[in-house]
Amino acid sequence: MNGVNRWKIAFLVLATFVAGAVTGAFFVMGSAKDEMRRNRDPRRWFSNTPDRWRSEMKLTPGQEQKIRPILQQIDDELTNLRALDLRETEGILSRGEDRINAILTPEQRPRLHQTFDARLVGRERSGKAAVTQRQSFCFCKVIGPAFHHSV
Q1: 18-20-22-28 Cα dihedral, nearest 10 degrees
Q2: Terminal C-alpha separation, the chain
Q3: If I label 76, which of 15, 43, 114, 119 is the partner at 20 to 30 A Cα–Cα?
Q4: Best CA proximity match to 96, nearest among 112, 120, 118, 114
Q5: Residues 77/119, Cβ–Cβ less than 8 Å
Q6: DSSP string spanning the chain?
Q7: Phi and psi at residue 30, in whole multiples of 5°?
């Protein structure tokens, strides 16, 4: 085997390794982002808290009995807050759509409605986080790139 063929083989092995490392990094980063989102969700954090507290803090049965209703109340309040937040977000977007609709020509209005209706698709697919991202994207698409930096 001559020197050129050895370098070709070495290069192919190195390129294969780099391609695998890059591909693996993308999968790990996506997985890590999903895990971070789950950990940031207060509802998810409180869903397993009583069991986690019992094992990590070595709670007595009496302590667990007193703490469990408090944690349930926290969970209920966070659920109510999320529902209120979603309703307020919808109201803000609806009022904004109405104000923009008054400015647009009749030919432009169907596109506005399509853009704002896309937020409903985002909600059905992925929950609130996707709705927020979709709403920001759609709203910027309607208003224009000059305002995109603030979102």
Answers
A1: -150
A2: 59
A3: 119
A4: 112
A5: no
A6: --HHHHHHHHHHHHHHHHHHHHHHHHHHHHHHHHHHHHHH-HHHHHHTHHHHHHHHTT--HHHHHHHHHHHHHHHHHHHHHHHHHHHHHHHHHHHHHHHHHHHS-TTTHHHHHHHHHHHHHHHHHH-HHHHHHHHHHHHHHHH-GGGGGG-
A7: -65, -45
Residue 101 CB coordination number (10 Å): 13
Encode pLDDT of 8-54 as tens digits.
Answer: 898 999 999 999 888 888 888 877 777 666 666 555 555 566 777 77
Domain boundaries, the chain: 1-40
pTM of the model: 0.41
pLDDT of the residue at 42: 56
Contacts with 38 (C-beta within 8 Å, 6 or more apart), sequence order: 44
Q: Tens digit of pLDDT for each residue in 105-117? A: 999 888 888 887 8
